Amino acid sequence: MADRHYTKTHEWVAVDGKHATIGITDFAQSQLGDVVFLELPSAGRKLAARESFGVVESVKAASDLYSPVAGRITAVNEKLAAKPELINSDPYGEGWILKLDLDGELPPDLLDEAAYKKVAEESSH
Amino acid sequence: MVDFGGWEMPQQYTSIRDEHLAVRHVAGLFDVSHMGRFRVAGDSLEFLQHLVTNDLSQLGLGQAQYNLLLNEEGGIVDDLVVYHGEEGFFVVVNASNREKDLRWFREHAPSGLEVEDRTFELALIAFQGPRAQELLPADGLDGLAYFGFRRGGVAGVRALISRTGYTGEDGFEIFVNSDRVAEVWDAILARGKEAGALPAGLGARDATRLEAALRLWGNDMDETVNPYEAGLGWTVKLDKGDFIGRDALVKVKAEGPRRKLVGLKLEPGSIARHGAAVSSGGKKAGVITSGTHSFFLGYPIALAMVEAASLRVGDTVGVEVRGREAPAEVVKLPFYRGSARSAAAPTRS
User: How far away is chain A from the Cα of B122, in angstroms, using its nearest Cα?
Assistant: First the structure.
């Protein structure tokens, strides 16, 4: 079972050894509303931690996506092109966005579930 | 929940997509109690005729009419619906303009004529969709024409039922005392549930009104935009006698409007947002006033205020989307014509 970490910008990262999977949180999808489009990079690109790698468009707004960790993209969720609503219906499962091979240590500012819950509660006011 | 003109309102109850599609295929129930509602008592025809653009002398008892309030320069102070009832006129205005409009009415009212704000005693809900009549728990709706209204009962509660709306679909706006609205709301949803009727939030309201090309004050028009520019010339009756803004409009009409509101269709994923620049042939041509992704049509749509002479249906323009220029096609309005049918009110395009 992979460990899931969170960012203040409402992404999650599940880490399993050197492999990481990235998505946006349930709180993020509920705030965005129905997602209609994602602009995503291609596999092979290297990302730094906190680097903006794409955009999620919902009916309400366009929001930047930031990588929680550094690494090289090994896979992009192809299903999202035809079914962006997977982000809403299953943000931690079928709505994953990228898979990365990790580069170096995890950034120290990643949040655990309890700490992220606090961030989400504060942002919803 | 979002703040909308000081009212806390849901963007969606469940999903904007589901609510939007329910309105188009079955029916959706909107809480629009935030809209301002004023009663103008007594002999007020002459006073109101001087404030609004449309001709109220054509408005029979039990009929409603879409209207505009203008300033002296011909700019749109607000859009509103005027109802001619047995006890006088009443009007429904935008929530964001309620206090401004109330001042405007009172400032211009002759002495002794009272303009009463009834917003908080009366709730207003809207049941909209092709199956709204069939599913509304009320009798005698057959004889009610589009933009007609009458007293009646909804789920056994006394109400004023108006065949009006803001979605392009057939449907009803229901005025009911605030302390009884919850039971009416529940009864409508209970009756419509099996057919697929849903409560619908602001997100679905904005998407459906935009598909029907119904203008939103504050986005598509404001006090710097005149009715001809907004494509609302059909609400202006210059020959009805004097009204505020008339002189300015006579001039605009003679010279032709400098700008016009056009419809744009974009490629999937390119959502044009309010305020985005529109260009034509590499030059700035205008600005997006409203835009969204239409789940019903399957592509993004937008309204843009552009230089009048420059653009025609079928032309391609550029729209700024996420810092880049996305292509958009100028299309005919409305984007979608729903089940709303009218003999009295002309097509709004």
Answer: 29
Subunit contact A34:B271, Cβ cutoff 8 A:
no
Nearest to A33 among B16, B268, B269 (CB): B16
Distance, CA of B135 to CA of B26 (rounded, Å): 9
Give the best residue of B271, B295, B301, B319 to mutate against chain A (max A CB count within 10 A): B271
For chain A, domain boundaries: 3-123
The answer, for A113 touching chain B at a CB cutoff of 8 Å, is no
pTM of the model: 0.90
Question: For the domain bounded by A3-123, which CATH number is listed?
Answer: 2.40.50.100
Mean pLDDT by 10 residues, chain B (349 residues): 80 92 98 95 92 96 97 98 94 96 95 93 96 94 92 96 96 96 98 98 95 97 97 96 97 93 95 96 94 95 88 95 94 94 45
Residue of A nearest to B268 (CA): A37
How many Cβ atoms sit within 10 Å of the Cβ of residue A68? Answer: 26
Chain B: residue whose CA lies nearest to A38: B269
Q: Which of A34, A80, A87 to mutate to test the interface with B (most CBs of B within 10 A)?
A: A34
Please give the domain boundaries of chain B with CATH numbers for all domains.
Answer: 2-210 (3.30.1360.120)
Give A105→chain B minimum CA distance, Å.
Answer: 32
Indicate yes or no: CB of A88 within 8 angstroms of CB of B15: yes
- Residue B292 C-alpha, separation from nearest chain A C-alpha, in angstroms: 6
Asked if A59 is an interface residue toward chain B (Cβ–Cβ < 8 A), one would say yes
